[in-house]
Give the backbone structure.
Amino acid sequence: MSAPTLDRPAAPDEAALQAHFDATIAADKRVEPRDWMPEGYRKGLIRQIAQHAHSEIIGMQPEGDWLLAAPSLRRKAILLAKVQDEAGHGMYLYSAAETLGADRADLTDKLIEGRHKYSSIFNYPTLTYADVGVIGWLVDGAAICNQVPLCRSSYGPYARAMIRVCKEESFHQRQGYELLMTMMRGTDEQRAMVQDAVDRWWWPSLMMFGPPDDDSPNSAQSMAWGIKRHSNDELRQRYVDMSVPQAEALGVTLPDPELRLDPSTGRYRFGQIDWDEFKRVISGNGPANAERIARRRAARDDNAWVIEAATAYAEKHAS
Amino acid sequence: MAHEETVYDALDHAHGGEGQWAFGTGFDDPLAGVDTTVPEGIDPADLGVYCLMLGDDALVLCQRLTQWATNAPELEEEVALANSGLDLLGQARLLLARAGSVGVLGRSREQATDSIPDEDALAYFRDADEFRNTALVEAENGDFARTMVRLLVASAWRLALFTRLRTSRDPVLAAIAAKGVHELTYHRDHAARWLLRLGDGTTESHRRAQAGVDAVWPLTADLFTATDVERRLVEAGVAVDPAELRDEVTGVLTMVVERATLAVPAWPADAAPSGRLGRHGPELTALLADLQGLARQHPAATW
Ligand SMILES: [Fe+2]
Ligand SMILES: [Fe+2]
């Protein structure tokens, strides 16, 4: 036995840890919760994962508004299961953030106090039942484009959460599209509802990929760290290329007169996105921001006594 | 029995390993592939009405649980409540489809177009006076404590019933009950666990839990009284006399409420069936307005 003072291993120096981390990223391997990571990486991840989790939870509301009124029992089952899935997505993602030292209750407080953002798309109201289908098709569709690359995120728990989430999102997208197909085969009124919903959701769905690359402050670092895999504009382009043929098959018109195939690239060119609207909505002034947050706040505050009771009970019955 | 297995298969399909998630869950035609022939000696009209009673209970309670969506105390509870709602909705669909398959559609079929399936004609195009749910499920949710007390009482009662219905002479009903037993066991235990936490949690939660128990208890008055339809079906080996459930249900409820350190109120005197005969309060009318409004606005639409 050596003397206690000599027994302690020397603390590995920061440079060595950084080198090990860099090598992990360079080799496209996963960083796990116990691994050393730079503070910026940890903070950037918490911000991204929390924002994603908040979006899942707030995203329950626009469609949740139709749960009681779903026009058939089959549609009610599909919608209830979807809204439940989104709660599950929020849970996995908050758990992933917790592996980085964040705390779910604290993240929720930050959401409610407006210190954290969530996807601006959920600040638009759902006016008809066609909105449920269009959200599934376009919003879940855009989410898939955003998230499939994240299944290879450099952070292990996030990547694994994304694999499960993506599976379910693609199911949601198919369900949404199938609802729209059914409605398009229905009455004239139903077809008009679908077109109207597409008119309202198309542009906001394009904004889901975030600001253009030349105006996206965190993107470069996130890409270097493997937290993000593709640029906003690249993902947006993929989404447009995927959606145009689907719109044609459905028989709806996307509300963009400039939308056309560029024969030289095989990709679709589209019109100018209204970034002023995006900024207005993301900074809290969209049509439904106040309502969305108010409902989260009410769920927290009105039921605080329930959580207090559960905590008190657990303490009494510990041991 | 061969056709019983078919029923099981169709039902099991919706309940694979990840049944609580949309992914992999079957949503289509609830009685697809099921032999719906009514065995000899059973009056199809009675059987249909009985299915409406049990189906309406499930549908109305599902609607109540769904009112919590996006408002629940925590995300785990969002998932759990949606899960119970989905189970009840599944039971409702099977039972309404069964009622339709034996021809019990009432005025609903006149109002709904042919393209609307029976389950939807029954759910969306009947008026309140044709609904046969009990008062227990139609009452407002109240706070979370009252919601959990009602869920506890409703699922304890329904579990006691479904356990016995597994040997019903109607094979469809028997299969629905067999599947439902697992679901209802979960609902009952989930609600019971909450009642323990709330009763034995803080002073405030204890007060609310007791208020919930006191508010829900009177709604049990007609739970143990049979209608004529039920009496005839008991004779035919199809239904269970609700009076038979009393000891089990009151026993379970007394045990849970006592363990939750709450006072067990006196059981109300038995009341004659009311909701089962289509008599309801304004709560059901309001609930049905939410449920049916959109479907009725577009009677020619397909969804
Ligand atoms: Fe999601
Ligand atoms: Fe989704």
About this structure: Chain B touches chain A through 57 residues (CB under 8 Å).
